[in-house]
Amino acid sequence: MGNMRICATLALVLGSAATLTGQAIQFSESQKVWLLTTKYNSYAMGVDSNGALQNLYWGAPLWRITDVQPATAKRDISSFDPHQMIDNEEFAGWGGPRFYEAALKVARANGDRDLVLKYVSHQIRGNELNITLKDIRDEIEATLHYRLYPENGVLQRSATIRNKTAAPITVESAQSATWYLPPGQGYQLNYLTGRWAAETQMNREPIHEGAKILESRKGNTSHNFNPWFSIDRGEGGGGGEEEGGVWFGSLAWSGNWRITIEQTPYRQVRVTGGFNTFDFSYPLKPGETLDTPEFYAGYSSAGAGGASRLMHKFEREQILPGGASARVRPVLYNSWEATTFAVDEPGQIALAEKAAKLGVELFVIDDGWFGKRNNDHAGLGDWFVNKQKFPNGLTNLIGRVNQLGMDFGLWVEPEMVNRDSDLYRAHPDWVMNFPGRPRSELRNQLVLNLARTEVKDYLFSVLDKLASENNSKYFKWDMNRAFSEPGWPELAPADQRKLWVAYTRNLYDLIDKLRQKHPKLEIESCSGGGGRIDLGILRRVDEVWASDNTEALDRLRIQEGFTQAHAPKIMSAWVTDVPNMNRRSTPLQFRFLVAMQGALGIGANLNHWSEEDFTTADKLVKFYKTIRNTVQTGSLYRLQSPRGHDVSSVEYVAPDGKQAVLLAYRHSQQYSTPAPQIYWRGLNAAAVYTVASLDGKVLNASPELSGASLMNQGLSLRLTGDYDSTAVVLQKKE
Ligand code: DGJ
């Protein structure tokens, strides 16, 4: 071991669930190697003899730092294939002969754009490691931040770019991290795509030479891609729902982002993510810095299911406000699909009374309560109560809602303005714009330039007032269009593109300040459904609206994709009326059981419901309350995908293992084919469970079965016809 200094000690019991004690970051000074280990994975880096910081390992846990091969300076393969291209540089500057996706690209005022980053120093503090790299000539630095979550199996990375020179520079690309997959072939990429009302659709494809880009250029996270990826070794190397190694990552940024997945000619698979380089230009004066977003990543040897369970737990414990001690999400009612803009006091009170009878805990009034908001042509920006609709302000409504035992929530869309609004008439300059050019409207609205301090301050005062004057415990924070003409004419031309970053930072700051002042306020992130769902906004909100598509069959696939990247707990899902999208009508129980996959809500027009509907709904809301702790805080097993299968099912196991819940759906039976056997997962084989069926659709099961039987013999369900559904609850016997 020579003069090796082990900075931290580890005691690992290797196996599928390695047990970790002690600190998780080891450093070998003689070998210049760092080994970062969590319960589920390890990550290693080293400095080669040229001073380049190289990635050395990412995968299942290692425990001996001496097992990590130190970084070696490689030779050029040919004049066309320089060693820089095979070095696995951890955070490569664009400079020298480097042709892949760089982590950092800068331009100096004199036009010089060469940047070669070498190791300078590092510090380890607990589970945090900072490594500083510097250009070979200039005082341009990148400090790489690593933070390990040993119990969660997640590594957080970001970078601070620092201009310590005496002249201005312009950052042209600033990425958070590059991740390298172990040398290998046949990698498969999984990612989520979508559009309005069709979010989080799953995609899977082989990684070939070349680059695949997942991104948003829209100013928000966007419906089109979620900033999440997972990579596995394909069918031959596992690549299943519950088997095989899976490398995954999620970027915490709600503005323009980009993740580039590359396979180089040298069979390296590298994933680089951070600010989108599209229209990016960020000047730094001497002494100024730029922080990149956090990029979280991990590895699981338990397939896609194992990877998503790690992310769910991580999101709940480390990302969401309140962490592990945050309450379970209440059952909510939202008025949007029932009343759209036609909200008024008697109408909302009538809905609230019916909702309360069903056991709803949070009543949210959606769009239409403010300004001249009778349709989407007017009113955005005028955040005062519409007196025609609510002559008593919101006081009576809120009072009645509270009297009925429910909390009250309010819809807001603070970042937007209609031309037909007092705010726009007073401050036409507050929207992002290029002077003299058209201001494109989408849904008749324009985007306020939240990058401007006066806009942020104004929005804080408006939201603070709304939260202070009304007993409003909840904001549904909507954002219904993408950016266009992102001009900031008040700044010098060279600085105007800072808008892309400053807008999102100010949005975060605004929410942070609001929550600080109103610690009991909860927020739902909505952007026309799932347009703003990422780990950056999730640090500040309690749940999200996954999609405006509430049609239950479509939802099954949207929700399956959603749970790849995000926790069921935050996935607000409503039961709405039929026929819904696709002109499809599904039974009320089917709609309820689909919405129970996350945070249950009701968005139907209760004035149209029959007695029978109320009886069914009452039973199902009560049922949900008996399982929601397991659904929202437990481990999710996606037993059978709705893609390509006539029967799909999901299972949740409570954190203490005492309860397990199965939700199963039949889409369309053909040829009288029985539903496939359900094989439970994640149970204790040696334990005995009571088996309770929601509606008697479990066939031939004794009321008690062992975990071994449930997982290996499975259960048969009687699911017949179209849109049949059922739920089964297991309770572990003491
Ligand atoms: C889009 C949201 O996704 C809907 O739920 C609803 O709040 C509307 N906006 C209101 O305009």
Low-confidence stretches: 1-21
Cα separation of the termini:
50 Å
The DSSP helix count reads: 12
Number of strands: 40
Helicity, in percent?
10-25%
| Structural class designation | alpha+beta
Can you tell me the overall shape? globular
Largest sheet: 10 strands, antiparallel
Named once each, the bound ligands are:
(2R,3S,4R,5S)-2-(hydroxymethyl)piperidine-3,4,5-triol
Q: Approximately how much beta-strand content do the residues carry?
A: 25-35%
What is the average per-residue confidence, as pLDDT, rounded to a whole number?
A: 95
Radius of gyration: 27 Å
Please explain how this structure is put together:
- This protein is globular.
- The chain has 12 helices and 40 strands.
- The protein is α+β, with helices and mostly antiparallel strands and 734 residues long.
- The relative contact order is 0.08.
- The longest helix is centred in the C-terminal third of the chain and has 23 residues, at 611-633.
- The model is unreliable at 1-21 (pLDDT under 50).
- The strands form 8 sheets. Strands 8, 9, 10, 11, 13, 14, 16, 17, 21 and 22 form a 10-stranded antiparallel beta sheet that branches.
- (2R,3S,4R,5S)-2-(hydroxymethyl)piperidine-3,4,5-triol is lined by residues 336, 366-367, 411, 478, 480, 526, 528-529, 545, 548.
Chain-wise SSE layout:
Elements: E1 11-13, E2 19-21, E3 25-28, E4 33-37, E5 42-47, E6 53-59, E7 104-108, E8 117-125, E9 128-135, E10 140-149, E11 154-163, E12 169-180, E13 188-193, E14 201-206, E15 210-215, E16 225-232, E17 246-252, E18 257-263, E19 269-275, E20 282-284, E21 289-291, E22 294-300, H1 303-319, E23 332-334, H2 336-339, H3 345-357, E24 362-365, H4 395-403, E25 407-412, E26 416-418, H5 422-426, E27 445-447, H6 453-469, E28 472-477, H7 499-517, E29 522-525, H8 535-538, E30 543-545, H9 552-565, E31 571-575, H10 588-595, E32 599-602, H11 611-633, E33 635-640, E34 647-653, E35 659-668, E36 688-693, E37 698-699, E38 704-706, H12 707-712, E39 716-717, E40 722-732
Parallel strand pairs: 23-24, 23-32, 24-25, 25-28, 28-29, 29-30, 30-31, 31-32
Antiparallel strand pairs: 1-2, 3-4, 4-5, 5-6, 7-12, 8-9, 9-10, 10-11, 11-21, 11-22, 12-19, 12-20, 13-14, 13-16, 15-18, 16-17, 17-22, 18-19, 26-27, 33-34, 34-35, 35-40, 36-38, 36-40, 37-39
Helix pairs in contact: 3-4, 6-7, 9-10, 10-11
